[in-house]
Recover the amino acids of this structure.
């Protein structure tokens, strides 16, 4: 669309350049990778190439981790916690993505105890407190503990440390799932994972690949229970014919991200942030977090303005930004993340700008429009 700028990459992203060029070819592997004819074997080969690429990229060992393709992070998260049974506990944060919160609700119904962990006012994971929380539950209960760890926060961009996730696992003796959905192309060293954690989950459409596909690395030592039972695909870990084109889109998009200039995105984010901070009644959320934020994300509050009012102004100016938290019936719901960070009074005021590749080269126009709206609000 002409004269519009898409600043909502944490919601979803446009296709990567390489995947768009690939689509122009118009000739794709379509056969079922389980078929033993030549066309089926070609699909299998394409899928295997993507698997090898992902293990190499993230430097994980195929002897230690399964790679499971699924429909996206919602399914990946829900599948991980499927292992929890009555008498076990799931530890999560109120600031987690709704996909995690709703998994907790589903598990409660089967007798899994769900216990919130805490975050600080800057959005950091309160490691020592949360270790003690899990340890204390374990001394009183015989069940197993499963924890979710949100690597890069979708609303605020606040980044947590994988070393903290590993300490949580080792000191509290629990299973840890890392929700890595927002990491590719948004933090430095997004591909550097720690071995030892139980799973990492990704959603392809967040980094320039297709919607409806994602993947998780799941440690072989983890007692994974398939959520989607079906045929024998993916060694029985996830039934359903594999989405080969989707898998190819993942490889092409991640290759593009490897060449992405994150510093150009960070410079633009910082300039937008400065425009926000020129107002006395503004708060930039998560700015003081311990391990920093995703370079593409700016979450801010204008104290006197609810997000739904501000969003209309940005939209009319040609800027697609978001409220960060969910909207229902056209109005913005209070953000559980802002509430967890002690910002209850402004829980309906949070705005999120999340940048990506297509913004580079348009910095001047974006800054001009953004400044006009910020001054007007
Ligand atoms: C951190 C995080 N986890 C999980 C999800 C769910 O991803 P999907 O909707 O692709 O299943 C999202 C999507 O916004 C997310 O940002």
């Amino acid at each position: 669309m002409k004269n519009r700028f898409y600043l909502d990459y944490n919601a979803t992203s446009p296709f990567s350049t390489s995947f768009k060029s690939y689509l122009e070819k118009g000739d794709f592997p379509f056969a079922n990778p389980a078929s033993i004819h030549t066309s089926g074997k070609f699909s299998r080969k394409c899928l295997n190439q993507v698997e090898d690429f992902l293990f190499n990229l993230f430097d994980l060992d195929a002897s230690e981790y399964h790679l499971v393709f699924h429909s996206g992070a919602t399914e990946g998260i829900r599948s991980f916690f499927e292992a929890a049974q009555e008498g076990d506990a799931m530890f999560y944060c109120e600031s987690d993505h709704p996909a995690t919160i709703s998994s907790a609700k589903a598990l409660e119904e089967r007798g899994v105890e769900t216990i919130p962990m805490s975050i600080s006012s800057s959005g950091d994971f309160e490691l020592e407190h949360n270790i003690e929380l899990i340890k204390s539950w374990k001394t009183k209960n015989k069940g197993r503990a499963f924890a979710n760890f949100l690597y890069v926060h979708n609303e605020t961009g606040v980044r947590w440390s994988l070393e903290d996730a590993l300490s949580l696992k080792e000191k509290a003796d629990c299973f840890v799932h890392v929700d890595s959905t927002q990491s590719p192309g948004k933090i430095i060293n997004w591909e550097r994972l720690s071995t030892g954690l139980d799973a990492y989950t990704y959603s392809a459409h967040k980094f320039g690949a297709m919607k409806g596909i994602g993947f998780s690395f799941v440690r072989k030592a983890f007692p994974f229970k398939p959520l989607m039972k079906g045929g024998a695909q993916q060694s029985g870990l996830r039934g359903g014919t594999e989405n080969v084109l989707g898998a190819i889109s993942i490889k092409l998009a991640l290759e593009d991200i490897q060449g992405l200039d994150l510093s150009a995105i960070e410079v633009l984010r910082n300039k937008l942030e400065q425009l926000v901070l020129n107002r006395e009644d503004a708060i930039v959320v998560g700015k003081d977090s311990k391990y920093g934020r995703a370079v593409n994300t700016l979450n801010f509050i204008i104290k006197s303005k609810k997000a739904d009012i501000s969003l209309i102004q940005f939209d009319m100016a040609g800027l697609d930004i978001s409220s960060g938290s969910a909207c229902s019936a056209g109005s913005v719901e209070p953000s559980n993340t802002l509430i967890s960070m002690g910002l209850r009074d402004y829980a309906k005021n949070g705005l999120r700008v999340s940048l990506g590749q297509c913004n580079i080269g348009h910095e001047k126009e974006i800054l001009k429009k953004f400044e006009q709206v910020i001054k007007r609000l």
Notes: The pocket of pyridoxal-5'-phosphate is lined by residues 72-74, 97, 99, 150, 154, 179, 181-182, 203, 205 (CB under 6 Å).
